[in-house]
Design brief:
180 residues, alpha+beta, 50s Ribosomal Protein L5, Chain: A, globular
């Protein structure tokens, strides 16, 4: 898979953003800085095989080795001790980031049941976008028969945008299917 999305960003998106946001230079145009994919193990925290399963799934999806995240403090109500492994995350930059984004937009969204678009309310004040997926089978690398326990994912797209409007404009031009 070549990086068509990056070429599209350079040739089409930057000039469109420059015109839409009234920017003087192409260097002012917002860009995606990184993508963080995060999966918490939640109620299966005692099952050691489950966290390895989640790790393998994230590695298949991203093509990069995930990092296990640990609890910063103990929470007795959730039976979590400080230092306990509670999740898995991957941070993508550069070519892999654009490949993942292209796969997410063109393939994964189409595989989600009853998909009507993503909400435009998930932007923070700095123009970063957070998206949650309930199941990992939306990605083509994950075969439905191989999965013994489904798990969700959280995808955080960090941008260099200064505000919500600039962040939404960037993702809209890249082809994100926002609900009208």
């Amino acid at each position: 898979m070549n990086v068509n999305l990056y070429q599209k960003y350079k040739k089409e998106v930057v000039p469109a953003l420059k015109k839409e946001l009234g920017l003087k230079s192409v260097m002012q145009a917002p860009k995606i800085t990184r993508i963080v994919i995060n999966a918490g193990v939640g109620r299966f925290i005692k099952d050691a095989g489950y966290i390895e399963n989640v790790e393998k799934t994230l590695q298949k999806i991203t093509g990069q080795k995930p990092v296990r995240t640990k609890a910063k403090k103990a929470i007795s109500n959730f039976k979590i001790r400080q230092g306990q492994e509670i999740g898995v995350m991957v941070t993508l930059h550069g070519v892999r980031m654009y490949q993942f984004l292209e796969k997410l937009i063109n393939v994964s969204f189409a595989r989600i049941r009853d998909f009507r678009g993503v909400s435009d309310k998930s932007f923070d004040a700095q123009g970063n976008y957070t998206l949650g997926l309930k199941e990992n089978t939306a990605f083509p690398e994950v075969k439905t028969g191989e999965v013994d326990k489904m798990h969700g994912l959280e995808i955080i797209i960090n941008t260099s945008a200064k505000n919500r409007a600039a962040g939404k404009a960037l993702l809209s031009h890249l082809g994100f299917p926002f609900i009208k």
